[in-house]
Amino acid sequence: MPAHDLTDVTASSDEHTIQCRGERFRRYLTAQDIQARTAELGATISSDYRNTTPILVSVLNGAFMFTADLMRGITIDCEVDFLKLSSYGDAKVSSGEVTELKRIDANIEGRDVIIVEDIVDTGLSMEYIIEKLRPLKPNSLRVCTLLHKPASTQHNVPLDYVGFQIPDLFVIGYGLDYGQIARNLPDIYILDK
Ligand code: 5GP
Known about the structure:
Blueprint: E1 9-11, E2 17-20, E3 23-29, H1 31-48, E4 55-60, H2 64-72, E5 79-85, E6 100-102, E7 112-120, H3 124-133, E8 140-148, E9 161-165, E10 171-172, E11 188-191
Parallel strand pairs: 4-5, 4-7, 7-8, 8-9
Antiparallel strand pairs: 1-2, 2-3, 3-11, 5-6, 10-11
The structure holds guanosine-5'-monophosphate (5GP).
């Protein structure tokens, strides 16, 4: 059996490109790049929150992998909870609509909350999440996103911790999907235009 038997994601002859759902993607951030930056973010958060026990609110599905690695880089006590929003479906562009599919379970009143996202694109989802969580009266509310596409962000959301700023192109891998597949790629790939 081949080591990587991915039905709709295939390596091409160029080891830096893959095909996913019939489109070509180029390797953009390696697992090592991601781990190094995630460790830096974890260290910064550990320092900023050294006098408290923050709760990470991870946004499913995309942020599950980043959240796991970020938590391993945090050296102070911290908690985690999850919320889930509707996804892009099979599309590469935002539908412009956000709905909540799963709420958080934790009581965040008086807590220091860090929302953990895989990517902020238009900012609509983050604005929606902040509007949902703020009335729950956290002591503080900050945002940590692995990726940010500044050129396409239309909603004014504060991004306190950003891993990488990237161009306005569709990316997959490391939790980020294309029609639900490709999340298991250890590296992040960008649409090869
Ligand atoms: P926004 O609401 O900021 O436009 O988009 C946020 C959500 O859209 C992200 O949490 C992610 O699920 C999805 N998204 C935005 N850009 C990309 C992208 O380039 N690739 C993938 N796979 N998902 C994206």
